[in-house]
Write a structure and sequence with these properties.
The chain has 886 residues and is of the alpha+beta class. The chain folds into 5 domains: 127 residues, Immunoglobulins (Immunoglobulin-like); 193 residues, Sandwich (Jelly Rolls), CATH 2.60.120; 124 residues, Jelly Rolls (Sandwich); 325 residues, Glycosyltransferase (Alpha/alpha barrel); 83 residues, Maltose phosphorylase, domain 3 (Sandwich), CATH 2.60.420.10. It is 22% helix and 30% strand. Strands 18, 19, 23, 24, 25, 26, 29, 30, 31 and 32 form a 10-stranded mixed beta sheet that branches. The radius of gyration is 28 Å and the shape is globular. It starts with a helix and ends with a strand.
């Protein structure tokens, strides 16, 4: 997450003569609302956070002071402030602003001063900038080119305006129903894709802020906007009925460009009736299927000052999609990685197949030269038929087209014939590895003619895994690829067939995301989507956001426990309780609804262990486990928030569920749950339902069951979250590793040895259905690598890795393993290497935090540090350590 900041600081600061100690200690990684120097925030009391760049042993913060003001020099001098926390004798590094009311459209500078372990102070400065803050500050009108939801071409909008005086700064604020691209003086503003992020449009609409100072010029300026449909005006037809969404309308937007001149005056250029509009060459766009473009309709210079728009019409006014327009404060979607084709297969003069070498979410860009009117079709697929052509049969099964004008994942480009032309979709993304390019007339293409772009929410990297097992490393890589492929402002299941925010997939892969990426801003946004979608009785849909589909199928505690699991895990990984505070009432309503329909303490509401290897337990079993997990989280949250009555109530509820569950499903004599399936044995262990005295017996039964399956898993979606953890946490880490590293069916490695670069939807690679090749739902293995082998775990008593629990497992069959996670305090490293009969274990604990190390000693083994014998549990301060186990 934040090691980039530490690395930059390391490179910038001089080293001492003694080696790697810092010559100076400084606060680093300063963030506001978990972003670096954000623009356009609406938070009245923003969160400010930092870490210490201090590699000395036992480095810690003994006090801090935060000062906030409008003038950078004044803040540096700690004068003229809007807030001064004063010196606080505390190691806190996440605080909430408590100063004067923040003003809209204002840049604030903030300084954090920290005192180190020796009482010496140092400081760093950062900034944040407020946005609208309130709906009343918008000046622009909502405009569109009509209300016809069936109109296919995307509309252009433009306006020319003067900037008569010297410009000091300028910001563009744009809200949209649909998607947009914003241009100033012929150049696209920013590098975001697919803005604004998808929400329940009739309940919450997002706006984005851009610094456009450098793109404005003295004199006349031209602003242009291209609007796309997105999920707002869904014209493609599929099983989820998005074309029937209650908010559906022709795309619309509202824009304010706020210019501050050098003399202090402010001018705002806004959307109104005077804007001109015309249809663009984007003759069709669907976020679900593809984009069609006719180069013959291009209007060169449409977004520059001297363009002749006499034939364009005036825009019309529209009502806003919702009465709740709020800032989009999150890591945006971008073209994150450029991926050249690794091969091209020329079928004939009008057909070529490109291979990117890996499965991605995103778009392809083609560069081609041909006669005017030549039609190029780019079919995006995950696999090929034996004849080398694109095979769509595994990803188009839910599409319900009304005609043949909107083929699935097929961009259609008509050339203008004016030389070399390039096309990349504006308002669409796909899941694919192969692109079959066909043309109505012969064209000449080379391997360099097509490039892929891996698109996803551009969340910073927060973790790394490296081991002596290449297959294990490839599993980690594939898991991350699938996770990112399914992160577009909300977590999805797959980037091709659905693009839906399936709740079950998301909570299974949650910890994989949190170990590997800094995704808090995405999850906070998605939990706002949850609150928008929750029914008054507490029910949530199985996909979020939704047009109304999913309230009657696929939901239940095994899926929609996201309302509890995500806030709780964000709290554990970040030490930030705001998401718990924001969602506590919603968590209560959800759990209370389950209680209302399940008075016995067991519930049959749910979908069950989806896509198992063989069979699955009763839904009552798996859903009751999640009902219990939700009740436990609710009780813990109530205690954290000092809600005593709720704490007692939900503690009692959890006890009731646990008693009812064990009474029905546990054979106390044998230590077997249900029929003894792997899922039935691992889920109670992982989620804490097994009576304390019986854990070993149940875990041993699980181990026997797995060993009886030749060390292979036999679980579905819900079981995969629990099985590796249940084994490694209960004395069977070696077996867990054997399962994780398997290379024969069914296993993650089975996919890898068969060429996978992402995770699949089905254990069977020859399955006839449920066989997307880029699914995240079996992605818990990516988190288990950190937990089960590296042993990096959160401490519930000191969350956010304030105290790191290190419980590594030096498993047989693996010679080296290293896990790194960049948490709120910095880089945590847990690395072990076999040395003869022993193990060398190296640890890094970041400044201002600590760790509790649990050495996995067996037989006569002992742990040593510098020749000194340690106990099996050792407390350590910040620093770098080397231990020997022999």
């Amino acid at each position: 997450m934040r090691y980039r900041y530490l690395l930059m600081l390391l490179l910038a600061l001089p080293f001492t003569q003694k080696g790697y100690g810092f010559a100076a200690v400084k606060p680093a990684g300063l963030q506001c609302e978990h972003l670096e120097r954000p623009l356009g925030i609406d938070a009245a009391s923003p969160r400010l956070s930092w870490m210490m760049a201090d590699e000395r042993l036992a480095a810690k913060q003994t006090a801090y002071r935060v000062v906030v003001g409008k003038d950078s020099l004044a803040v540096a001098g700690k004068k003229g402030l809007v807030w001064d926390s004063g010196k606080q004798n505390s190691s806190l590094s996440l605080v909430t602003y408590k100063g004067k009311a923040l003003e809209a459209f204002t840049k604030y500078y903030w300084l954090v001063e920290v005192w180190d372990k020796d009482g010496k102070p140092s400081s760093s400065i950062s900034s944040f900038e407020t946005g609208m803050m309130t709906m009343a500050n918008w000046k622009g009108a909502w405009i569109s080119d009509g209300t016809d939801v069936k109109a296919k071409p995307a509309p252009y909008f433009r306006k020319v305006f003067p900037a008569a005086k010297k410009i000091k700064s300028a910001r563009a604020y744009i809200a949209c129903g649909g998607l947009y691209e914003l241009y100033l003086n012929g150049k696209k503003v920013g590098n975001h894709r697919m803005d604004p992020m998808y929400t329940r449009y009739d309940r919450r609409t997002l706006y984005v802020t851009y610094d456009v100072t450098s793109q404005l010029q003295n004199g006349k300026n031209a602003v242009g906007v291209l609007l796309g449909n997105g999920w707002y005006n869904h014209q493609s037809t599929a099983v989820w009925d998005f074309h029937k969404a209650p908010w559906r309308n022709r795309p619309t937007f509202c824009l304010d460009i706020r210019i501050t001149y050098a003399d202090g005056t402010v001018e705002t250029v806004s959307t109104d009736r005077d804007w001109k509009t015309a249809l663009s060459p984007v003759i069709f766009n669907s976020i679900y299927t593809a984009e069609h473009y006719d180069g013959r309709l291009e209007q060169v210079g449409w977004n520059v000052v001297n363009f002749d728009d006499i034939k364009w019409k005036n825009a019309g006014l529209r009502t806003a999609p919702s009465g709740n327009v709020v800032a989009q404060v999150m890591h945006p979607v971008r073209n994150v990685e450029k991926i050249p084709a690794i091969s091209i297969n020329k079928i004939n003069d009008t057909a070529y197949v490109f291979d990117l070498g890996r499965n991605i979410s995103g778009v392809s860009q083609i560069t081609v030269k041909g006669e005017a009117g030549t039609v190029i079709r780019l079919k995006h697929a995950e696999r090929l038929y034996k004849n080398g052509r694109a095979d769509m049969s595994n990803i188009d099964q839910h599409y319900r087209p009304t005609d043949d004008t909107d083929p699935f994942q097929v961009d259609i480009v008509t050339l203008n014939g004016r030389g070399e032309e390039s096309f990349m979709p504006h308002f669409n993304y796909k899941g694919f590895q192969f692109v079959e390019v066909t043309s109505s007339k012969p064209v000449q293409l080379t391997k360099e003619s097509l490039t892929g772009y891996f698109m996803h929410s551009d969340v910073p990297v927060a973790g790394h895994i490296k081991s002596s097992n290449p297959t294990l490393d490839k599993i980690w890589f594939a898991t991350n690829n699938s996770y990112l492929s399914n992160l577009f402002g909300y977590p999805t299941d797959c980037p091709q067939r659905e693009k839906n925010g399936w709740t079950g997939d998301a909570h299974i892969a949650l910890e994989t995301g949190l170990y590997n990426f800094d995704g808090i801003t995405i999850y906070e946004k998605w939990l706002s989507d949850h609150r928008d979608e929750q029914q008054p009785n507490g029910v949530l849909p199985s996909i979020i956001p939704t047009d109304g589909w999913g309230y009657d199928w696929g939901n239940g505690p095994d899926w929609t426990s996201t309302i509890a699991l995500i806030p709780w895990n964000i709290y554990l990984y970040y030490g930030d309780d705001q998401i718990l505070r924001n969602n506590f009432p919603n968590m209560k309503r959800y759990v209370d609804h389950i209680t209302d329909i399940s008075p016995s303490g067991l519930t049959t509401w749910g979908l069950g262990d989806w896509v198992p290897v063989s069979d699955k337990p009763p839904v009552e079993f798996t859903s009751s486990v999640y009902y219990y997990a939700d009740a436990v989280i609710l009780a813990k949250t109530a205690k954290l928030l000092s809600k005593t009555d709720d704490y007692q109530r939900y503690t009692a509820l959890a006890a009731k569920i646990k008693a009812a569950f064990n009474a029905k499903f546990l054979n106390a004599a044998t230590g077997i749950y249900g029929d003894g399936r792997q899922t039935e044995l691992c889920m109670p262990l992982y989620w804490g339902l097994v009576p304390e005295g019986m854990k070993t017996k149940v875990a041993d039964n699980l181990a026997k069951k797995v060993e009886g399956g030749n060390n292979h898993l036999d679980v579905g979606l819900l079981g995969t979250k629990a099985i590796l953890n249940a084994l490694s946490e209960n004395g069977h880490a070696d077996l867990a590793y054997k399962v994780a590293a398997q290379e024969t069916y069914p296993s993650w490695g089975w996919w890898i040895v068969n060429g996978a670069t992402t995770l699949y939807e089905n254990w069977r690679i020859d399955a006839k259905r449920d066989i997307s090749l880029n699914h995240i739902m079996f992605g818990e293995v990516g988190a288990w690598l950190y937990k089960g082998l590296g042993g990096i775990r959160t401490d519930e008593q000191q969350p956010g890795f304030k105290n790191v629990l290190l419980k590594p497992n030096f498993v047989s069959g693996l010679d080296h393993f290293e896990a790194r996670h960049d948490g709120p305090y910095g880089a945590i490293v847990s690395s072990w290497t076999r040395a003869g009969e022993g193990v060398v274990y190296e640890v890094t604990v970041p400044a201002n935090s600590s760790a509790t190390v649990y050495f996995p000693l067996t037989g006569s083994q002992k742990a040593y540090q510098d020749g000194k014998v340690l106990t099996g549990k050792t407390e350590i301060a910040a620093g770098k350590y080397k231990f020997e186990i022999r």
